[in-house]
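Sequence in, structure out.
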Amino acid sequence: MSIVVDHEEIRLQATYLGDAAGQLDQVAPSVPTAVAGGLGTAAILGILSNFVTSAGELVTGLAGLGVVLDECATRYAEQDIVAADEINAAAWTG
């Protein structure tokens, strides 16, 4: 049994994650910094604070996962080259 890993597909998915992180991060300037909510102002700002914190963590996570996937693609590609060299050497000497 063999497993085929398409390195370029992994890199493409890493790019998608990075793009998603960038697009989500572009939403940040649209978050209101002040709210006229009367008695509910504190609650509204608390909700916004949680939302912004969570969105920031999501951006960081998506971007980080994209970097990890890109690194995985590189390592898979390097390992494939090593394995292919070993198979070729065994075939020629075997």
